[in-house]
Amino acid sequence: MSEKPAANARGPYAKGVARRQEILDRAIEVFAERGSDRTSLRAIAQEVGVTHAALTHYFGSLEELLVEVYRESERRGDRLPVPPGETPLDMVKHWAESNRQVAGLVQLYSTLVAAALEEGHPAARDFATERFARVRNDLAERVVRNQQDGRLRADVDPHAVAALVIAASDGLQTQWLLDPDAPQDAALSLLETLLAAPQPDAR
Amino acid sequence: MSEKPAANARGPYAKGVARRQEILDRAIEVFAERGSDRTSLRAIAQEVGVTHAALTHYFGSLEELLVEVYRESERRGDRLPVPPGETPLDMVKHWAESNRQVAGLVQLYSTLVAAALEEGHPAARDFATERFARVRNDLAERVVRNQQDGRLRADVDPHAVAALVIAASDGLQTQWLLDPDAPQDAALSLLETLLAAPQPDAR
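Output (structure tokens, whole complex):
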């Protein structure tokens, strides 16, 4: 209609973007503090301090808002980058440590994954499917590098290692959240030991 | 009030027990066919063919009904017993195989675990916490036997192995449900190989 691009930095569109971001910022605070208990969009709107209509306008559905909260939180570097030489297990231990600071986001992750497995939650399903595939690929590339530099055993399939490490990370996190006596650290260390390249000096 | 015990096989109480069981039987069929999509008790009542009031009377809440559906399904031996000599990985592969027959119950499991991690779902939390602790103990005992009979490496902590195997089982199942190309079998076989006792003849 106009020569201005839709994403121009002024005008109603830009205001909308800024407002959406404000709401998202506040929603992230709410979830980090209170957990993601799958409640109504109306209850969340109240907590965030906007109308139900505004949330629907900017995010479409509760599910899409939850996905955006998680994505934005990840983008902000709640998970700091791990140096490329570190193994997948180093990454997982790092995740486990940082996740303990933000229980709400861990709950949100498990809620989104559970929703993804149910019928009728396309946004959660797309999010979880894409995320698992991407993290598996990233970790598999890391495994290949670790095998080349002699940190991980060379006789294991990188994609199987990646899937196993992610599963161990997710599953042990769940067990630990429900029961602090569950041996999360011991089990991650065990997997690390099992995957380590044999030491030339070892008997 | 009466000399009859509360659980007498006749009278209104017995009728109530039978009716509750009928509803539970039907609910299990519904979930096995359609998945556990976390919906309202009202919608489930309609599907099962009872009133909302009846469901509330017999099960209290949607959450408690879901827990009972899962427990009853397990009791019925959807998961056949595995011989004691089998390793935890044999069990997990067996679970993975039988779970592929009942996608609805797998969804129900992940829904209950996700609810357990949220606030305000005491029935799901009790179910998941008790179940993880019990399965960890069962598998740890199995690991000890497998270590004694030389099937599993002796230098690993049985409780850490148990937690790791459960996490791998749950997490790989999730990845596979979202993406049939996720290497569930390869990753379980990898864990099996890593945990196997070294063969005396191996180089």
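Chain A has two domains: 1-76, 79-203.
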